[in-house]
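Hi P.,

Sorry for the delay on this. The queue was packed all week, but I finally got your sequence through. Input first:
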Amino acid sequence: MKESAGRRAFRLLNAIVLSLLSLVTVYPILYVVLASFSNPAEFLAHRGLLITSLGFSLDAYRLVLSNTMILHGYVNTIIVVVSGVALNLLMTSLGAYFLSRKGMLWRDPIMFLFVFTMFFSGGLVPYYLTVRGLGLDNSYWALIIPTAVNTFNLILMRTSFLGIPDEIEESAKLDGASHLTILFRIFLPLSMPVVAVMILYYGVGHWNAWFNAMLFIRDRDLYPLQLVLREILVQNDTNAMLVGTDSFDKGLVAETLKYAVIVVATLPVLALYPFLQKYFVKGMMIGALKG
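Then the structure:
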């Protein structure tokens, strides 16, 4: 069947618009990467778009990778991400399973209370006082326990569990399986796409989180990577990373140093996403179609 002229024009226009949108999205990332590898003096004198690196220098990365605060931040963030995602998956899957069971007592009122928290909260001061009152401040737990369950993710996983046929659960119960056995050996393996989405959502959330750390963490040895990054970028504090650098070079290296820190902090998440992409697309389609 021959394609009409209007159809070809639409496809061409669509390709042009999507290409421009892709360029607008990708270029800031490319700019940061190119700036991080540029020669500090040439980059400071440059104005306008950056198409290629200006010279080539690894001084910024050398300073980043030799800085103890960055390394401590990485370790602290990895601890929070691994522990936090494990707790998130456990709590979210438990809540989603029981809220998806038809015979659960008070299921709808409890679900309403969960949804209610998406629109109304107690505010920052009660939240801060609660965490302090539980003795969680200045510890990893202040970054993990208060964010144990995200309501949107709970609803997403619950929707996935609702799509599993009741006959599978009934068959497992006839074989003597408990609720925990059904959840961990049947429901979760059948819901791997949504589990991958949960890992990505919760993992990226913990990796990028800095506000709770700013509120509750006072010991600098417990600073996560994003809080260290905030000090460098927002507060413009690069002096600790420039020890041993000539005073003339400090102002130059500091410019490319900021971009190198951004690359180092963002690279793990960018590297993880391609491995979860196929699950991510499938998992996000859960609940999109109604039978």
